[in-house]
Amino acid sequence: MTSTQQYQGQDLLRIGDADCYLLLAPEHGGRLVRWVHHGQDILFWPDDADWSRVAKVRGGNPLLFPFIGRHFVDGEAGKWRSRDGTVHALPQHGFARDLPFEVVEASESAVSLQLASSDATRPGYPYSFDFTVTYRLLTDGLEATLATRNTGDQPLPYYAGHHFYFDLPHALRAESRLSMPPSVRVRQNGDGSLNTPETGDGTYTVDDPRLQDTFHVLRAAGPVRLAMPSRTIEIGLNDADTTPWYAVTTWTERDDSDFYCVEPWLGLPNAIGHGQGLRWLDAGAEERATCRLLVKP
Fold this sequence. Notes:
Beta-galactosidase, Chain A, domain 5, 6-stranded antiparallel sheet, 1 helix, about 0% helix
């Protein structure tokens, strides 16, 4: 069912039942705060979360739009250059995680939250758009869809993504495994360029330093699996009728952080500069990208 629940002093939107449910904060970047599956928290959320700066909270699933990661102009971060040569200022990961979303549809098993272009978005991104996230509870997991619609009259550049913080005690990283479909490993240099790609492994232990802040550019279809002692999360990517995910990024904050991030992305950081994963959406067009997160024993 759909309701409002008090959590950490906030009124959050709740969908689901007593055992499997989502808690979301539409006013705080459309953030998915908790995903509880058969009584267990799948995502990490800190007990001392600072709700005055939710965009900076390490937890849940922040939404990354219109661009992912850091973008650069002449080596300076936080800026990007449009086709006409104009330089715009835009924060890391874009602005979606900082702005309120509108609840456009909600039921006992699904919810859609939308961010539309406004005076708050146009200074750094002079395009008209609707950006919508839809979460749908499944019997065995969660489906998450990002939809971008160009409501303007000029082509729109974008590359969006998720930032799932999976609950994983740091002491269990060496006992956990990450399995990837065929891919190459890439990292971003300090000036926004990319390093030379390396052939990716099929399986890593989660404490492998090669995973830290690394982009796994997908070369073939297949799921990503995060196998932990308590459960396995299988992330299904690239439905035939949806926009293909370009990469999966792996990251954590510190050696003692009790979370690990596995993030489906539509492009690479600074794609607006180097083009790897940059998408152009024609006027009036819409694209949808779906991933399914299945929870297995």
